[in-house]
From TrEMBL:
Region span, Disordered: 844-875
InterPro entries per the UniProt record, alphabetical: Peptidase_M4, Peptidase_M4/M1_CTD_sf, Peptidase_M4_C_domain, Peptidase_M4_domain, Zinc_Metalloprotease_M4
Entries under Gene3D superfamilies matching the protein: 3.10.170.10, Neutral Protease Domain 2 (1.10.390.10)
Residue stretches making up the Peptidase M4 domain: 261-406
Residue positions of the active site: E401, H508
Protein name: Peptidase
Annotated organism of origin: Pseudoalteromonas rubra
Annotated signal peptide: 1-22
Single GO biological process annotation from the record: proteolysis
């Protein structure tokens, strides 16, 4: 049948093809209070029963809550569905006040008996041939296709909705399934949502693990009933519904109110794929993971869930991955839309680039099951082992790994050195931003569970409970995090300040400076997590960043982006000042115009030291050291006190103190320079003793240089109460109480002051002892001040299989060394006494420990007469 058309507007053509007696009534709702009792509610659906004459019907007309927008009033958006397919143009909106009472309604309410206007469930003609005829023999590219209904003169008309690309121009067509007649043509990029054009539906599923509990991902308030009734055993919690909605109308899953578990439905098969995400199982990754949709598109097989949990203590790897990655991709698309509102493509050289994501679960390697990684093509999640880690597809891990993909598509910085620190640090910031996005938009019974509440506790200073600022808690068996934001060094390896950067550390550890700066921007400068993240995300996509950049160059790029982030009550200059300040707090100079002080601060467990001896003493008017524990050391030129003791100073803080120290120097002329150091003080001791298998006591005493440790009777000895002073670049001896020829000797030095010993921290590495002595030295790379040193004597090599160290058939002695730097001489304070015959006696008030083998030198009088006595007398 040919249809007559009426031109309704530019590029829009509506054709009426079917005539039937009206059975469905459409009632306008504006100001019609009398109809409010018939409206759907957020806790239920409105169902109109079908008549016997309704063909192809296995359910009634259902209203689904699509999204909720606003607060006062709050707008609930509903759409009508029949047989699981949407009814086009059926949206109605209900406005409610703060008490939940309806104050207005808009749109049209459909009610009455349902009849179908045609018998066809799908288009009965060859789609390609038919479309070619519509375009005069040309063949547009079919991008998407979906089934829907249109209300046509009181009956539901089954239609096919097509998204086409015709010579670069995108169009949407609506075709009558019975006749193939063109009902509607629209020229635009977004007239019809992916829900229709790709058969995408919101799926339900189970996720979570032993720690998180059974999470019932529920697109509707009453969905996933089987999940909520599921319980693995009497010790496990019952399943709890989790709803997630994003009221942004431009969210990529807006047609599902932002619910991110969106699947592709083909008949009774639902596949974990949509335009933004595809989820595979690495054990068979030829096709995306699929399941039988059922009536409600829910994926819940009790037996399969129980079997999976019995093996991995995770309920469903694939469902969890698809929900979490969908949420992350929606988050990024939303962020990019706000940062680059004029960008029309998803990958633009002048803006951001985001591609459809592919991911695999059960992606285990020769390194085991407890890894997650981005390989340049897929995000890969290990299965977990069920006792150290659960599935690695939890939300924080998924966000982190997808962050690597975003970096790969945008800044493209590498994975080693400074690049690696920025890369890993950025991904950790993705995780906290995504978790915040999740927390703010999640609802349902699951958000009232102990696991959810614990996960989002924000208790500043309470490191053992501040889980909101932990990374990876959701995937770890123990009540712990993999990394931390408030104080990164609390994990024992990460750094709080760039001064502690070391290639011997992992990139994750070196990335601690980004986590610390981000935390301070939020907490100290009162930025929101989302605003703070936008600065970092824009830096990654602005074109400023490049491979092998320095950390200060990175800081500059970040600071420059602050001007593009609008924050209420903060001017552009204030925003930049905030960013520059927090970056400076971790040692990153973000502005070349900033005058800073090179203070050479060093943190050694519970001691903080600084060294400004490079400054010319005569140019200093005042030195002020605010140590961060409430005490201050001040020197003023006007007080006529010696300046030299203040050029190099050490301060001991109480253990387990969060210190924010500041060193301020005022120079002649009034210029003030400042240096900042934030750190967490810890006792000067190892984090854990070594593992000793078949221990043996090889020596009962040990002499280190001139310092003796007598009466050693145990396989492990901790002698950290007394400091042993040693100088760098000098050979020292270890003396044993007997001949230990043939034994293996390892000497380790805690270079990074983290209380552990790594392979890269050895002074002697499994050397064979000859006789009763051995020699070692502290080289130039050894940091000054105190540090732990470990001496291990065994029959076999020392092992680093555990960070605590493993020794077979041997013993371990831990001591503490006070290392000196001969390149920076001690400038002594002194007193003097005038003697007869024009002589002056000088008394050294800053003697060096003789174990350091010090040399003394001085110059006296107008002619700089030299001397080398410790307490000289000169004419």
């Amino acid at each position: 049948m040919k249809c007559l058309g009426t031109l309704l507007g530019a590029g829009s053509l509506l054709l009426s093809c079917t005539q039937a007696s009206a059975t469905i009534e459409s009632h306008p709702l504006l100001n019609q209070q009398h109809l409010w009792e018939q409206l759907p509610t957020a806790n239920s659906v409105s169902i109109q029963e079908t008549t016997d004459s309704a063909r192809h019907s296995n359910s009634g007309l259902i209203y689904r809550l699509e999204k909720v927008v606003g607060e006062q009033p709050q707008y609930e958006h509903y759409s009508a569905y029949f047989q699981g397919k949407p009814v086009l143009d059926s949206t109605l909106v209900i406005a409610r006040n703060a008490k939940g009472d309806i104050v207005q309604s808009m749109g049209k309410l459909l009610r009455g008996h349902i009849e179908l206007a045609n018998n066809a469930a799908t288009l009965q003609q060859d789609l390609v041939v038919h479309i070619s005829a519509l375009y005069e023999g040309k063949q547009p590219q079919i991008e998407n296709s979906a089934q829907a209904y249109v209300l046509n003169q009181g009956k539901l008309l089954s239609v096919t909705v097509l998204q086409l690309n015709h010579e670069g121009h995108r169009e949407q067509l609506v075709l009558d399934n019975a006749t193939g007649d063109l009902m509607q043509r629209q020229s635009s990029v977004s007239f019809f949502s992916p829900t229709l054009t790709n058969n995408y539906v919101a799926g339900g599923a189970i996720g979570g693990n032993e720690k998180l509990g059974a999470i019932c991902y529920s697109p509707q308030p009453d969905s996933m009933q089987a999940c909520t009734e599921y319980r693995y055993d009497e010790y496990a919690p019952m399943g709890a519904r989790l709803h997630f909605s994003d009221t942004d109308p431009n969210a990529i899953f807006a047609q599902f109110s932002g619910f991110p578990l969106v699947v592709n439905k083909d008949g009774n098969t639902c596949r974990l794929e949509n335009p933004y995400l595809s989820t595979f199982d690495a054990r068979d990754h030829t096709q995306t993971v699929s399941y039988a949709c059922g009536a409600n598109n829910e994926n819940f097989d009790s037996a399969a869930v129980t079997q999976n949990f019995s093996t991995w203590f995770t309920y469903s790897h694939a469902s969890e991955a698809h929900f979490n990655a969908g949420l992350v991709m929606q988050f990024f698309h939303q962020q990019f839309a706000e940062l680059y509102p004029s960008q029309s493509s998803a990958c633009d050289s002048s803006g951001y680039c985001i591609k459809p994501l592919k991911q695999k679960v059960h992606s285990n390697t020769i390194y085991g099951t407890n890894r997650a990684f981005w390989d340049g093509e897929y995000v890969n999640y290990g299965s977990g082992d069920g006792y150290n880690f659960y599935s690695l597809a939890t939300l924080s891990i998924a966000a982190h790994e997808i962050g690597h993909a975003i970096n790969s598509w945008n800044a493209g910085i590498g994975s080693d050195g400074i690049d690696g620190a920025i890369n890993e640090g950025f991904s950790d910031l993705v995780a906290i931003a995504v978790m915040d996005y999740f927390e703010r938009n999640a609802s349902g019974a699951y958000t009232q569970t102990e696991a959810f509440i614990k996960q989002f506790q924000d208790q500043a200073g309470q490191y053992s409970q501040n889980r909101k600022w932990w990374f990876g808690w959701d995937a770890i068996y123990q009540d712990n995090g993999a990394r931390f934001y408030e104080l990164p060094s609390w994990d024992g390896t990460s750094i709080d300040h760039i001064a502690d950067f070391s290639l011997a550390k992992t990139e994750h550890a070196n990335g601690g400076v980004l986590r610390k700066a981000f935390y301070e921007l939020v907490k100290t400068k009162q930025w929101s997590i989302q605003d703070a993240f936008k600065v970092l995300l824009r830096a990654n996509t602005s074109g400023c960043m490049f491979p092998n950049m320095s950390m200060d160059e990175f800081g500059y790029c970040v600071a420059q982006q602050s001007e593009h982030i609008e924050i209420a009550d903060k001017s552009a200059s204030q925003r930049k000042e905030d960013v520059v300040d927090v970056l400076l707090g971790v040692g990153i100079v973000a502005d070349t115009n900033l005058s800073t002080l090179e203070a050479n601060t060093q943190v050694s467990y519970d001691e903080l030291s600084y060294d400004i001896s490079h400054l010319t003493a005569d140019t200093i008017e005042q030195i002020s050291a605010q140590w961060g524990d409430g005490t201050t050391s001040v020197w003023r030129n006007s007080d006529n006190q010696p300046v030299y003791p203040f050029l190099q100073k050490i301060h001991k803080l109480p253990a387990d103190t969060m210190a924010r120290a500041a060193i301020n120097v005022t120079l002649t002329g009034g210029e003030t320079r400042s240096a900042y150091r934030h750190f967490f003080s810890r006792p000067a001791n190892v984090n854990c003793p070594p593992y000793l298998n078949a221990p043996k006591v090889h020596t009962s005493s040990l002499k280190i240089a001139n310092h003796e440790i007598p009466s050693i009777s145990n396989d492990y000895t901790s002698a950290v109460d007394t400091r042993i002073p040693l100088a760098k670049n000098r050979l020292y001896s270890l003396t044993f109480d007997k001949d230990l020829s043939g034994k293996k000797l390892t000497v380790l030095y805690d270079m990074n002051k983290n209380g552990e010993f790594a392979y890269t921290e050895h002074l002697l590495n499994d050397v064979t002892i000859s006789g009763n002595t051995a020699s070692f030295e502290l080289n130039n790379s050894t940091p000054s001040s105190i540090a732990l040193m470990r001496i291990a004597i065994a029959d076999v090599d020392y092992s680093f299989l555990d960070s605590c160290g493993v020794v077979d058939d041997g013993q371990v002695i831990d001591v503490i060394i006070d290392a000196d730097s001969p390149d920076l001489p001690i400038i002594a304070d002194f007193t003097y006494q005038v003697l007869d015959e024009n002589r002056v006696k000088f008394t050294n008030n800053s003697p060096a420990d003789q174990a350091r083998q010090p040399n003394n030198s001085g110059h006296f009088g107008f002619n700089n007469q030299p001397g080398n006595a410790e307490n000289p007398t000169q004419r």
